[in-house]
Amino acid sequence: MSQLADIPAATEFIQPEFTVQESVPPAEAGLLKRIFAFPNPVNEYAARCTAGLVVVMALVAILTQWEWLVGIIAAGFILRLAFGPRISPAALLSVKVLAPRLGQPKLVPGPPKRFAQGIGVVMSVTAFILLLVNVPLAGWALMALLLVAASLESFIGLCLGCILFGVLVRRGLIPAGICDECANVNFRSR
């Protein structure tokens, strides 16, 4: 059990030279909160690198029709949604190897990125189930939509899930207190 207490906080995945407001509860606040914490803020470059890895995997899955790869993509989204970048191989590669090569982190709010990961879970898990129950057209169509969304995030920094999150905050469907800055999410210049 003591090994579980040594799980790093989600904010430990932001490059150490940056000081951020602690958004991950301290260890004494509860092990489950620490395990399922998501970093806030998030390094935009790491998020875009992870999206780029999703683009590559989704493209390979669609071109080869490898249903098992869709399952791997879905598992990656589930891991990132539940644990942030601490367990997902794609996120770890992005945070530890790829993003640091792009320069100083560009910090953005974490809650919209987690929301976007949730949308990725819904789309990829649904696509995987559709492929397993032999509804390939719908399954591959969902993967194509996921490919488009991940491409927009990776190549031009346009996070569709983040935009939807901002709209839902402004409409009051997501409490503004979750992310005050997010009520103003719009098409910012990159």
Task: Describe the structure using short key phrases.
single chain; about 190 residues; mainly alpha; two-stranded antiparallel ribbon
Blueprint (SSEs and pairs):
Elements: H1 2-5, H2 31-35, E1 42-43, H3 44-64, H4 67-83, H5 89-98, E2 107-108, H6 110-132, H7 136-156, H8 160-170
Antiparallel strand pairs: 1-2
Please tell me about this protein's structure:
There is one protein chain. The chain has 190 residues and is an all-alpha fold. It has one domain (38-182). 59% of the residues lie in helices and 2% in strands. The chain has 8 helices and 2 strands; from the N terminus they run ααβαααβααα. It has helices at 2-5, 31-35, 44-64, 67-83, 89-98, 110-132, 136-156, 160-170; strands spanning 42-43, 107-108. A two-stranded antiparallel sheet has the order 1-2. The radius of gyration is 17 Å and the shape is globular.
The tally of strands reads 2
How many discrete structural domains? 1
Shape: globular
Beta-strand fraction estimate: under 5%
Main beta-sheet strand count, sense and barrel state = 2 strands, antiparallel
Radius of gyration: 17 Å
Whole-number average pLDDT? 83
Helix content: 55-70%
Element string (H = helix, E = strand)? HHEHHHEHHH
Strand order of the largest sheet: 1-2
Uncertain segments are 1-25
Structure classification: mainly alpha
Distance between the termini: 44 Å
Q: What is shown here, in short?
A:
With 190 residues, the protein is mostly helical. It has helices spanning 2-5, 31-35, 44-64, 67-83, 89-98, 110-132, 136-156, 160-170, and strands spanning 42-43, 107-108.
